[in-house]
Amino acid sequence: MTQKIIYVLLTLVSVISYGQVQFTMKSDKTDYNGKEIVNLTIVLELNGDLIQQSKLQLPDLSKFNMIGNGSFSQAVRDPETNTAVDQYVTRIALEPKQKGKIKVGSVLVTINNKIYKTEPFDIFIKDIEKKPLANVANDVYLNMEIEDREVYQDQPTIAVLRVYSRSIDNLRKVKNIKLPEQENINVHPVNFKRSEIDPSGYANMASQVLAVFMVFPNEAGYVEVPAVSASVNSFSVKNKIASNKVKLNVKKLPEGSPESFKNAVGNFKVDVFHSSKDKVEAKKPVNVTVKVSGEGNLADMSLPKIEESPDYDVFAPRITSHVSAGISGMKGEILAKYILIPKKAGDLIVKTEPFAFFNPAEKEYVNLGQEKLDLTAFSHDEVLEARSTVEKVNDYTNTLLETVDSPVLKTTSFKVKEKSKFNWNVLFINIAILFGLFVAYMVFKYWQKNRNMIKEKPTPKPLGSVAETEREIRESLKTDITDYFAYLENIKTSGDYPKFFETFEEMDLEVRKQYFQSSKEDFKQFLERHNGSSVAENYQELLHKVQMEKYSPLTSEDSLNDLLTDIVKLYSVISK
């Protein structure tokens, strides 16, 4: 009997000693001067078949500046049990931002699907020297660079916007770039794609290209390009900065321009065409397109119009533009789609206005003259006679069915359409209707069968107190908060920061529903009544941190790591 008891005790001791976790965090001392560095040492010891499933989740260290951190692992032997232990040591150096008593929270880690945490402790900081906040805008400079500052009127020149700063981090804070606007220039963006950061720019400052755009001066003389503005977003303020101004020497176009020249500068081509293959019928609308293609001030120049004529009526065009940035201007094509109505049958000529442009590469004017389009308008009878026998029969049948209705059926729905094809949509709609009728029939049979069944009336469950009923409902609505913790960890690792905050709002809403609280303010009062004022204050402070991090222009994985630690710590207490 004694041997059996000893065997049972040894078995229990081996089970208890198998898979032990020791998790501690401590500082090198408790009292610090204002200029001393706070050194934290985190030790994790794993004894047995244990798997670390998450990284160390640090507490809120917003009251410190992190100077540095490092970690190492080693295998040591426990002198008491004489077993090998895996030891992971992490050291963090912090610079305090404020004086007084500061609470250092718990570090969290997940091992074998169980969360372990260190004990929080307090440290005391004596008087600390406050450093004045630096104005980020004073360290960020915009520079507008225009290499070719001598151009002809309406000839483009390329402008490059570049930002300079001694801190590479400040380059990412430049937002909301606004290009210059002025009556004597036309500005068209080329791209807002940021270039790679050059760490060794002008005066040992890092630089980056923010935007490239084209400037078209539309008057001769000295033209000043206004400054480009932008904003520098920091955590507390939003500052505006502006670039330098650039003066252009705009040369007047040479004399001797043709009468048809207006303001087209570049290299262009004009075409006029009628795209439809149908015969043109007198007194019926006809679509005629004037296309101007090439490269230059294509987006701002005056397009050649269709001249008026006693042979037809012409209406205002619809303009379609397909333009992009090129090497020496905006390139592509602009289509002016006109509607013409021939007044009579016979031959007619559609003419455009004379068009000329100045070619800055050749430094000469090019007169393209007028573009012409020959059309032949037919009378209605001639159009009918030109139709084939089948087309005539179809037209006659359609006219008959449109004008004569049967007393039984409305025969206009049976019009014979020319060149018609099999309508698959009608077939699919009929199949869907038949399927719907079949489903409705099966639902009706099922309802009829259940109606004939005799149902036993269930015995009513005895009602408890209001508190018991509320507890049962809360248990039925209770959310598995650990699933949200794991999901937030995965989102943080993947770098999908907007999804992280969206999931947190969803988790917070589910937890509030669990306690029948609709708003965050009501939930705070609920926590103050049931969990104490400290938990309610921590909840309010956590919501503030989430909002600050959500709308921060610079979000990092380390900051989200600290935020997730606070979320796990607080909601684990609330959901107990």
Describe this structure in words.
- This protein is an alpha+beta fold and 576 residues long.
- Helix content is 28%, strand content 36%.
- It has 11 helices and 29 strands.
- The protein has helices at residues 2-17, 168-171, 380-385, 389-403, 424-452, 466-477, 481-494, 497-514, 520-530, 533-550, 557-574, and strands at residues 20-27, 31-32, 38-47, 64-78, 83-96, 100-104, 108-111, 114-117, 121-125, 140-146, 150-152, 157-165, 174-178, 185-191, 206-217, 221-225, 229-233, 238-242, 246-251, 261-273, 280-281, 286-296, 312-314, 318-325, 330-342, 346-351, 355-359, 364-369, 372-378.
- The strands form 8 sheets. Strands 20, 22, 23, 24, 25, 27 and 28 form a 7-stranded mixed beta sheet that branches. It has a 4-stranded antiparallel beta sheet with strand order 1-3-5-4, with no helix packed on it.
- A hairpin with a 2-residue loop joins strand 7 (108-111) and strand 8.
- Helix 7 (481-494) runs antiparallel to helix 8 (497-514), helix 7 (481-494) packs antiparallel against helix 11 (557-574) and helix 9 (520-530) runs antiparallel to helix 10 (533-550).
- The protein is flat.
- Mean pLDDT is 80; it is low at 12-18, 408-416 and 454-467.
Main attributes?
single chain, 576 residues, alpha+beta, seven-stranded mixed beta sheet, four-stranded antiparallel beta sheet, 11 helices, 29 strands, flat, membrane, transmembrane, transmembrane helix, BatD, BatD family protein
Q: Into which percentage range does the β-strand content fall?
A: 35-45%
Instruction: Note the main sheet.
Output: 7 strands, mixed
Q: Which stretches are low in confidence, meaning pLDDT under 50 for 5 or more residues running?
A: 12-18, 408-416, 454-467
The span between the termini is 44 Å
Give me the secondary-structure category.
alpha+beta
Shape: flat
Organism: Chryseobacterium formosus
InterPro entries: BatD
Transmembrane segments: 422-444
Protein name: BatD family protein
